[in-house]
Amino acid sequence: NRKNDLAGKTIVVTAGGTREPIDPVRYIGNRSSGKMGCALAAAASARGASVKLVSTVDMPDSSGMTVIRVETAAQMLEAVRGAVKGADALIMAAAVADFRPLTAAGGKIKKNAAPLDLKLEATPDILSEVKGDFIRVGFAAETADLIDNAKKKLGGKNLDLIVANDVTAPGSGFGADTNKVTLLFKDGRAEDLPLMPKRAVAEKIMDYLATMLN
Ligand code: C5P
User: Fold this and answer.
1) Which residue pairs from 146-153 have beta carbons closer than 8 angstroms and sit at least 24 positions apart in sequence?
2) Does the domain at residues 10-101+117-213 carry the CATH identifier 3.40.50.10300?
3) Are the beta carbons of 14 and 80 closer than 8 angstroms?
């Protein structure tokens, strides 16, 4: 990348979907591929930031970054708590499960246990629980009322910036290499970005981050 505008900054990025165990072989998961989070980590690193990537997926080229692999929302919370100490920004691109089984079975659940009731409890909200003096960026993946829902999350989670993403729009679905997002800022500004590669979306976000941090 042409710029080195994030040199000296430490940026924590989360990527991927969490997996919440049902038993030793099964989990509740979601469709997040981790591509957006990995693109953010790559962009930040290329622009000179010291990157800590907390991820449920392996990143193809993570040289020069600190990668912390996690599986569950609880593990992600603990990893983020540690990683944000002294950090300048936290970007929560991960799709954190909202529910997890109340208990995970110790052994593989047998077929003859059907019909099987799974009791689910809420997971901790990482953005709400992790406090500190750093720029906070969240994502809002929505299937309806994109801007309204994203605005609520911007305020509710005390964010500086939320990246609103209609996951039903063409080219914006899970696993795609492109994304179409709207950036919503704390001060009420909004910017609609066209459909573009996830790496280009990441560079846009880094442009704003660099401005906020410098
Ligand atoms: O409330 P919702 O899950 O839609 O909010 C999305 C944003 O909040 C994302 O940035 C996501 O990473 C973050 N999040 C979180 N902890 C959760 C759920 C979501 O930090 N338990």
Assistant:
1) 146/182, 147/182, 147/184, 147/190, 150/182, 150/184, 151/184
2) yes
3) yes
Q: 30 catalytic, yes or no?
A: yes
pLDDT band with cut points at 50, 70 and 90 for residue 2: low
Nearest atom in ligand 1 to 140's CA: 6
Q: What is the pLDDT of residues 122-179, one digit of tens each?
A: 999 999 999 999 999 999 999 999 999 999 999 999 999 999 999 888 899 788 999 9
Q: Which of 20, 84, 127 to mutate to test the pocket of ligand 1 (most atoms within 8 A of CB)?
A: 127
The complex's ipTM works out to 0.96
Is the pLDDT assigned to residue 59 strictly greater than 60?
yes
- CA of 123, closest atom in ligand 1: 21
**Phi, psi at residue 101, to the nearest 5°?**
-60, 135
Per domain, the residue ranges of the chain are: 10-101+117-213
- Does the pLDDT value for residue 1 go beyond 60? no
